[in-house]
Description:
Distance between the termini: 18 Å
Number of strands: 34
Structural class: alpha+beta
Radius of gyration: 27 Å
Number of helices: 17
Largest sheet: 8 strands, antiparallel
Strand content: 25-35%
Amino acid sequence: MKPIKLITIPLLSLICFVLHATDNKPYGLLTDLVEHTDYTWNNGYLSNLPVWQTEGAIESLQYVEIRSAYPSFSWIVPGKANATRQTSYRIVVSDNMEDAVSGKGNIWDSGIVDSRKSTSVSYEGNALQPKKNYFWRVKTVTNTEGESDWSDVKAFRTADKMQDYSAGFYPQVKTMEHPVSTKKTGNSATFIDFGKAAFGQLILNLTSDNDKDSVIIHLGEHQVNGRVDRNPGGTIRYQRYAIGLLKGTHTYRIKITKDERNTGSAAVLIPDYIGEVLPFRYCEIEGYEKPVTVSDVIRESVHYPFDETASYFECSNDTLNQIWDMCKYSIKATSALGIYIDGDRERIPYEADALINQLCHYGVDREYSMARRSHEYLLEYPTWPTEWILQAVLIAWNDYMYTGDSRSLKANYDILKARTLMQLREKNGLISTTTGLQTPEFSSSIRFNGKIRDIVDWPHTGILGLNKHEGGEADGFVFTDYNAVTNAYHYEALKFMGQIADILNNQQDASYYKKEAASFLSRYNKTFLNNKSGYYVDGDTTLHASLHTNMFPVAFGMVPPGKMNKVIDFIHSRKMACSVYGSQFLMDALYEASDAEYALSMLTKTDDRSWYNMIRIGSTISLEAWDNKYKPNQDWNHAWGAVPANIIPRKLMGVEPLMPGFDKVRIKPQLASLPWAKAVVPTIKGNVSLEIENKKGEYHMQITIPANMESEVYLPLLSNKYEVKNNGNIQKTIRVKNAPFISLGNFPSGTYTIIMTY
């Protein structure tokens, strides 16, 4: 058995960690959920000019523009001692650096505020003015270390136009990357491998003895026998370019050709300061006899700012480690447009992509602005599937739980209410898109031009190159007027809408939605849960059952007590009969049902319907489908295929927010038969870290919970007889009713070594 190891942290992160550990000052400051508001970029590259010096710059500079006249502030509370919590804070905001450095708030001084709140604290001064520089800092008082030092000063600049609330976001940025290898494939050809695919551009240093030479450049995501695949199929990317060479040595930039399909009216466009991009891993230079070294070739990869060191995962299963690495990288690599898109084929935002991308982004980086920007974009420009219209409420809820910032909920409350689709309720209490209720007024209320349609999963049979005998990805789902999957989403939206109304102190709406959710759940189970078989059917007029019809009620907590076993048995019988999109809810369902061993087998399997298959066929970014044969027009750069990037931290390691802004975290690992695993999970309050080893007779777990956060901790029930010690002392425990877990109760912040002997 492999012994548990200490987490290896890159040197820069270690230095930062040591500084934070020794400095008694708040750090990780966010303004409107964005951290690096004081930096500027010059056409994608970090500039040495701070944001308050942009007005004197000649060249084009990009920076975060704060658009809210009343922004929010967040910080990480310092403190190493166990049970450290903030008891008060003081924020100052100035319009000049000198006052801020001196701790003077000539724009706003919060005074000493007795509060534990350290995330999404609202600015309460006079409305900020457009096109101005501001500087803020914060100090805290904690119960263990008293008054802190002032934080470093954080600067930001406001936008040309201001609103009471408007989401902030980063510009897109570039990273220069050299190939991992170059290889001569003939007298006049060189094959170049960058190791991973990226949305990027290409720069070459080439030499010619005259001005009559020319070369052909091939760029692509797929290779065959050491050559760039000229006909990869689907929308796997390949492009060809010709360059006429000048005499001597010169630097050539390949101008990426615009694709009409992904630059249309519905697509998100790449900004002019970046220029057009192409996803590619490989480059082939044809017709060039001179040697090409790695220093002669540069790929400028384009992405949203991303902290590679923010998250970490490693376990005893190397297949799962490879899957984690691919999925984590996929979130960075697919962020090139600054808004979550569906891949390079269309570059259109869709709610389903955004929901999965959101959770994955939260799992791999302490970054929240891209998810919020994407969500609010989709509230204005929704897409056609019924379930995805409903997903807006789920995305809004995730945003709030991970950030603790309710301003987006408040600003978009009316449209979120419309997205519950109450207007599609029929007399039987269920919703339907096919019974004549889609009036022009309804379409206007959800901001959609046209009629929405149920989707369940995608693609369906008989389209996109699938023959009629091929089942698509909906597991043969039978569509009826009253769709079990659509109505499951309706319940989830009602449930969250009740909680949203509560948060916004709209007690009348809160009472209404909670009552509706409860009565609807009873109605749902009476309609779709088949008493004879014990599992759910697709609709009110069919006995056909699909994986989807059963996994969504489990994922959404809808299965009545005593009915779970037969539903789970049915789910097992269908295996991975869903798309990479559907796998999000299959995995959520399995962990919700405490079916950890089967969930692990789904995560780590290696057939053609697996995440490992994406690696095996040569992709380094998650795919749109399990394999080309399941979606012949698929692309190789789809973040909705990166589900393990959120399932591993949220479910396998079990780190999820129980209260908004991670005021309280649940730690409930479900490693099943993995001998060991360790992770660093980023949160808005700081990193949660876990190291777990399960050896014969002993289960070891070390957890670190950042200051100003509480936790609810669970262990798996591995035996009926056990003893638990916490930091060497006997720990009281309670067995969880109807679930294979032991509750250790609530833990304050700090580091705990927990050993269960059994």
